[in-house]
Design a protein that fits this description.
Helix content: 40-55%
Oligomer: single chain
Number of helices: 13
Strand order of the largest sheet: 1-5-3-4-2
Shape: extended
Radius of gyration: 30 Å
Structural class: alpha/beta
Length: about 290
């Protein structure tokens, strides 16, 4: 960047990111190395692969956030300090892009000149100091993207979720205020919020109050202990369905009777077998088979 451009932006300096073929970056698997992270063995994140390949204007957006790397003084190779999943996803994305005859993506990397303990500090810090967006915040971003003339399928790729999940996310914006506030505060789960968003405001408010009182949830943690109670509040108490239960034994007996009736009658009522069956005529042989 020319000095005039830096001055116009009031920038105090600059650092260049190098662009690497992801296959040239080394993912450390030696457990004794300060750069080892068990997540290096995680499977490739399919959603991240699709995000890297996302090309609304015909050009893949690639890896957006630079990874941190250091040069191994002994081997001369470039080792990843942080950003393993981005590198793995970029490798997989390139396999698919090459099959389509398209240009592969490169991984932007910031080269760190660091001691072993400083490199490990970078590894820890980058992963432990991230704040997730709130469900309502994500919903607002999704809606703004749609307002730009884009569609839900694109949003699904950007957020790494399914299209039905996008619809649920957007539904939060039209949910009763009590539901939105409870989801935003982490007092009820996002999935509960999706379901309550379809209710009338008075009913939704009542169920939110019951959830908070009888199935409280600690923000950031799963409600394992109260999950069953929460489902009963949101979906209705178990047993409210009055449809009688039919045992497997009874179903088998009925199936046997119907089979016996068909075996007897299939020649007598040609063309009308299904009609006679629906009319219940098979009951004439009930219990005799």
């Amino acid at each position: 960047m020319p000095k005039a451009s830096r001055d116009s932006l009031n920038a105090k300096g600059k650092r260049d990111a190098y662009m690497f073929d992801p296959d040239d970056l080394v993912l450390v698997t030696d457990e004794k190395s300060p750069l080892f992270d068990e997540r290096v063995h995680l499977p490739v994140d399919e959603n991240l692969v699709l995000n890297i390949m996302f090309a609304p204007d015909g050009v893949p957006q690639g890896v957006l956030e630079p990874v941190n790397v250091i040069r191994n003084a002994e081997t001369g190779k470039v080792e990843v300090v942080s950003g393993r999943q981005r590198v793995k996803a970029a490798r997989e994305a390139n396999k698919r892009l090459k099959k389509r005859g398209l240009e592969p993506v490169r991984v932007p990397a910031m080269i760190q000149r660091a001691s072993a303990h400083r490199a490990m500090g970078i590894l820890i810090s980058e992963n432990e100091h991230r704040q997730d967006d709130t469900p309502i915040g994500r919903a607002k971003k999704a809606q703004r993207y749609i307002d730009l003339g884009r569609d839900e399928a694109e949003i699904a790729v950007l957020f790494g979720i399914s299209v039905p999940s996008v619809k649920n996310l957007l539904a939060l914006l039209d949910a009763p205020a009590a539901v939105r506030h409870a989801v935003e505060a982490g007092k009820i789960s996002t999935s509960d919020g999706y379901k309550l968003a379809r209710l009338e405001p008075s009913e939704a408010k009542e169920k939110v109050a019951k959830l908070i009182e009888h199935a409280p949830r600690t923000p950031g943690k799963k409600r394992s202990k109260n999950a069953k109670k929460a489902r009963e509040i949101v979906d209705g108490a178990k047993g409210s369905d009055k449809t009688p239960k039919i045992s497997a034994k009874a179903e088998d007996a009925v199936a046997t009777d119907i089979a016996a009736w068909i075996d007897q009658k299939w020649k007598e009522v040609p063309g009308g077998l299904l009609k006679a069956l629906r009319a219940g005529e098979w009951r004439a042989v009930r219990g005799k088979s």
